[in-house]
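Example record

One chain of 206 residues, shown exactly as stored in the release files.
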Amino acid sequence: MAEIDGNWFHNQLDDRGQSLRALARHLGKDASAVSRTFSGKRKMTMEEAAEIASFLGVSVTEVMHHAGITREGEGLGPKILLSAVIGEDGEVRSLPEPQPLPQAVLDKAQLSIGAGRNRRIIAAQVRASTGALSIWDDAVLLFAPTDGIEPGAIGALSICCLSGGKQILAKLDRARKTGEARVVSPDGGIGEAVLTTATPVLVMIP
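Predicted structure tokens for this chain:
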């Protein structure tokens, strides 16, 4: 692991007129624990990096860089970042910047997909207060990006990319190699569509 640049964090706090104690309160931790983190005696977690980024008003990527956290992640298995949200209409929308997942969700994800899996995994969170997807509100779905229509997507809840580039969450009823497919939307509606890719949801974490 690369060394943390503690001076950068202290300078960021000074520039904003904030104290280490104020940051510690934001994190729900003792100031001594935060001080140990910035001095390199304690490892910063991905969840802490996200909270610190929010407190400082900077990107998570910048905090990760100065904290010495690599994108390859901690421990075994693939690094999984929250890269998209799924709205009430079932459309999958990419986030401007991927965010780290809480450690509890990461642990469940690694158990579900297997620590030795080498494929890149994407996480998308359902954000639906109403409609058919509201029963899954806040759930995290994991899927692997693909270049085509995967056989495993047929008959399964899948992330489907339409020919126009729009991505949706739907059950793929049937699909031809040429892309013509019949999809069932979360509200039960059935429609014909032309797909460029389709990949099954690997697991849903409530």
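Notes: The mean pLDDT is 86.
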